Amino acid sequence: MEADLIIIGGGLAGLVTANRAAELGCSVIILEQGATPDYPCNSRVTGGVVHFATESLLEPLDFLAKKVARITGGFVAPEKTSSIAADGKRALEWLIAQGTKFVQTSPHPRHRWVMGPLRLPRHGLDPTGWRGRAGDATLRALTAKLKERGGILSLGTKARSLIFENNRCVGVAAEKDGAPTTFRGKAIVLADGGFQGSDAMIGRFIAKQPGKVQRRNAATGMGDGIRMLEEAGAKLVGMKYFYGHLLARDALKREQLWPYPTLDALATASIVVNGRGERFLDEGMGGVYLANALAWSDDPTDAWVVFDDEIWNKAGRTEAGFVSANPVLVNVKGPLFKADSLAALESDTGLPAGALTATVAAYNDAATNKTNPQLSPPRSTEYGTPQPILKAPFYAVPMCPGLTFTMGGGDVDADMRFLRPDGSVIEGLVGAGKSIGGLEGGETGGYVGGLSLALLTGMRAAESIARSVKAA
Ligand SMILES: Cc1cc2nc3c(=O)[nH]c(=O)nc-3n(C[C@H](O)[C@H](O)[C@H](O)COP(=O)(O)OP(=O)(O)OC[C@H]3O[C@@H](n4cnc5c(N)ncnc54)[C@H](O)[C@@H]3O)c2cc1C
């Protein structure tokens, strides 16, 4: 089969690329490995908050660019952010015209653009949480529009490898319903969603012990696009960074504990200690950073969040707005150690006697006297002010990192064309969504956005391909 664009992946990035290109007069085929109309993908089960670095996409470009440079510790240059965010207003208006119904869920600008009807908090991938809601509603609207525009969504079609002729990517070798088949196009778009479902790739790029990193995702991104990019000689960037949250350790074996509740608000108000009862991370750098740092460590499950009753009843109730650790951890009988003294907590958890008590004393002193930057490791305040741990009962929850999506991928130019390490363009090969790296991440775990980047990169990819198809 042949079309102007062959797009690998029918998540938000793939469907945006396909629809925008079809609207501009191109023929399009999406290859989607999922076989049923409600095929799983991250876009379908998403929370639906279309933010950009936890701000509204309508904020001034300069503000967004500076914020991304700051939260990524300089990993993403301001010019790169300004270039991609420049289409923000137009992209939101376009998505509304396709049928997305946005809801404002709080006065904060980051909650201005939340896909409706709102997703419900449910365990694991329980469809009663997402069916007909948020990402699923948007994907359904985009699929219907694609059909009206004459585009093809080829379900049950797994892309296996890229086809190159004369140094140009011209097609995809795939398997449809188990039989080999070939698709040829003027441009091939990788929109396969990253590698968050692949233990082997998580083990290669992120964690020494991938089995101790809980997937809080649809597990459909198997890294096929990354493999194809490597075979094509593309430059990969930011491969060790991911978006995720802190989860209760039992999430590794109990579906009731992912994707919610996350423990980020508790951790950023209090302390995270290892099995020796010592602080070892800067909690003030936020939950995404903490999840990354844990995944990169020798034992991602060697971590406890420790807090007091005051924190449990304040920060514990604000997590993620609507799915707070307090009371969900209690309701689902999650791992929650509770004791009247720190010594008793040490005894209950098996943390060494005296070690946690000493760590808490040093931390309390710093939190009270505002000398937290002098702690070792220092305690910053970007994502939460340290609260002293004083009021019994005291609590501890054993944790593991939860991985939502991978941030690493191929380096691209402003038209989303993949690049080689020497900066040259790989002709015919374009990215959208999580196949692209370098737009978020860094050692600080700077999170820019799953949905906003899928939307913006998809629009840009479609428009640049449509221009070159017309010019040819
Ligand atoms: C629980 C959860 C909550 C989230 N909440 C938010 C939020 O509130 N805000 C936000 O910005 N982001 C959020 N995200 C992240 C966001 O949903 C994703 O980053 C985004 O939807 C990714 O879009 P995508 O199109 O790149 O990838 P995906 O949606 O993963 O789509 C990729 C598609 O490619 C297909 N595919 C993969 N390999 C192949 C192959 N070889 N051949 C054919 N098809 C293939 C897959 O089946 C899949 O359908 C959340 C994610 C999760 C899991």
Per-chain topology:
Blueprint: E1 2-8, H1 12-23, E2 28-31, H2 42-45, H3 61-71, H4 78-85, H5 88-98, E3 101-103, E4 114-116, H6 127-130, H7 134-148, E5 152-154, E6 157-165, E7 168-176, E8 179-190, H8 199-205, E9 214-215, H9 224-231, E10 236-237, E11 242-248, H10 264-269, E12 271-273, H11 287-296, E13 304-308, H12 309-313, H13 325-331, E14 337-339, H14 342-349, H15 355-369, E15 394-406, E16 409-410, E17 417-419, E18 425-431, H16 450-471
Parallel strand pairs: 1-2, 1-8, 2-5, 8-18, 9-15
Antiparallel strand pairs: 3-4, 6-7, 7-8, 10-16, 11-15, 12-13, 13-15, 14-15, 17-18
Helix pairs in contact: 1-7, 1-16, 3-4, 5-16
The protein binds flavin-adenine dinucleotide (FAD).
Describe this protein's structure.
It is elongated, with a radius of gyration of 23 Å. The chain has 16 helices and 18 strands. The mean pLDDT is 96. By secondary structure, the chain is α/β, with parallel strands linked by helices. It has two domains: 2-240 and 407-471, FAD/NAD(P)-binding domain (3-Layer(bba) Sandwich), CATH 3.50.50; 251-403, Flavocytochrome C3, Chain A, domain 1. The structure holds flavin-adenine dinucleotide. Residues 8-14, 31-34, 39, 41-43, 45-49, 158-159, 191-193, 216-218, 220-222, 224, 259, 404-405, 433-434, 449-452, 454 line the site of flavin-adenine dinucleotide.
